[in-house]
């Protein structure tokens, strides 16, 4: 998951969300009423989806896996867990049908202190909690990373692992060609990498450059050195990341 900057909504849409939340606060059955209100709020859902699509790292694609087209407005904290956050803009994410309806569903694991274990794409950088192996599989670095991989099934979908593998190889090829030329990278050189099947491969590559992990993944020293020299340009592709 690539962190993004959540933009403010227009005043009229914010007012609509606030009014719907106020109505739920008066409910004697907030979960049932929240479910019903969300199901019938088609216009509001479509508006939210429009704004979420514009904030994705890969435009209009799932904020969890980045591989599939975003189809659903997902509640990071599920309605069952917190019905009063049903219309909370800070609780809305764009997800594909698989991540939302088959993998995550109503799962929302917490640690003993009540802190969410599932990473939130709006504020968490997955590269702080997991790393992408050159095989396309995610390896956890923290308990939150492990839980997120499990909840979203990030290593259970062969087609997703294959897409990340192909994307990783694509990133390596681009940098190998650039390193051979000896020219400094430009933002235009990196633009196409944002539209790989899984842009997260480029995201993890950038973190590997910053952390000095490329050599551990079999990347040749000359490419590692070239990427490190161009880290400022690479960092510009992920403005919400700490690189």
UniProtKB/TrEMBL annotation:
The organism's taxonomic lineage, starting at the top: Bacteria, Bacillati, Actinomycetota, Actinomycetes, Micromonosporales
MF GO annotations: endonuclease activity; nucleic acid binding; zinc ion binding
Domain HNH, chain residue ranges per copy: 62-104
Domain of life: Bacteria
Entries under InterPro entries matching the protein: HNH (IPR002711), HNH_nuc (IPR003615)
Any Pfam family: HNH
Regions crossing the membrane: none
Protein name, entry field: HNH domain-containing protein
